[in-house]
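Input record (one chain):
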Amino acid sequence: MDNVVQPAKIPHTLVEDALAILFGTLLVSFGVTLLKTAGALTGSTAGIAFLISYLTHLSFGTAFFVINLPFYWLAARRMGWAFTIKTFCAVGLVSLFTHLHPLFIHFSALDPFYATLFGNVIMGIGFIVLFRHKASLGGINILALWLQDKYGIRAGKLQMGVDTCVVLASLFVVSLPMLAASIAGAVILNLIIAMNHRPGRYFV
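The corresponding structure, as predicted from the sequence alone:
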């Protein structure tokens, strides 16, 4: 059998990482803006931030930033400081951009179902950009990975449990049609990630 020569890994430069985090968070935050305008939500940490923003006077950006604060210690232990710093920057930029987008973009007419589905598509693409550059948006995903390492609790099960709680809690916040659209959008987002972010598929 012929030996297969694997291409040499070419790591991303600091400038490439910085630009990717900038572009990725711009996409994610714009998707969040579409969901917020439509009155929809999503799962995981962002879903919790949406619920808090709908129930209180806190903005999504502020809630999202504060919720993520306890998880950076776990991120440093589980993934290292490089990942943690990139994730902190990504979370901070998403929080900032969700405040800035409404200052420059105003929707006079926006179909809520279209906005919810398309917003999740944009968010999914943004997540892929961040993942490819070893960054994330922290939160529940970090906790799930830590509990899996520490206590053997499957990360996927915890993530599903949290998303289920977010959906159940949202029954008291959003209408049933918007809840259905939010669930469909979350499925689309996760499909995008599943199809485009598989370990071993890419060399860098």
